[in-house]
């Protein structure tokens, strides 16, 4: 038998989910915002897979120290790629070309 508080919270969760789904169907702006957020996540996941190309995008070691070094390295590379904006020109084999005399097309990205 379940506790009444648990049952009440489950019903509240169902009601909130229903309200969200109704808003999602009703509001194009909400659908657009969700889609844009998903695009950001997908781009980030794609970049992570690209950075960790040699390991299939996964942490292959079960040693805590190795996982920590890999995670910190991934985080550092992610931060660097944020400043570059686009990562398609980066070669995962160790070299990349970046012309510092040419500005980034930020107006085109906005």
Could you list some keywords that capture this structure?
110 residues, mainly alpha, flat
Write the layout of secondary structure elements.
Elements (H helix, E strand, L loop, with lengths): L3 H23 L1 H24 L12 H21 L21 H4 L1
Structure description:
With 110 residues, the protein is mainly alpha-helical. 65% of the residues lie in helices and 0% in strands. The protein contains 4 helices and no strands. The protein has helices at 4-26, 28-51, 64-84, 106-109. The longest helix is centred in the middle third of the chain and has 24 residues, at 28-51. It starts with a helix and ends with a helix. The mean pLDDT is 80.
Q: In summary, what is this structure?
A:
The chain has about 110 residues and is an all-alpha fold. About 65% of the residues lie in helices and about 0% in strands. The longest helix has 24 residues, at about 30-50.
């Amino acid at each position: 038998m379940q506790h009444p508080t648990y049952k009440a919270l489950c019903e509240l969760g169902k009601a909130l989910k229903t309200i969200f789904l109704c808003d999602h169907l009703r509001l194009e702006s909400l659908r657009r915002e969700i889609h844009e957020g998903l695009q950001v996540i997908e781009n980030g996941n794609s970049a992570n897979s690209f950075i960790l190309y040699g390991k299939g995008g996964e942490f292959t070691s079960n040693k805590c120290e190795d996982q920590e070094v890999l995670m910190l390295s991934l985080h550092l590379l992610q931060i660097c790629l944020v400043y570059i904006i686009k990562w398609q020109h980066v070669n995962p084999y160790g070299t990349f070309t970046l012309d510092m005399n040419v500005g980034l097309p930020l107006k085109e990205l906005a």
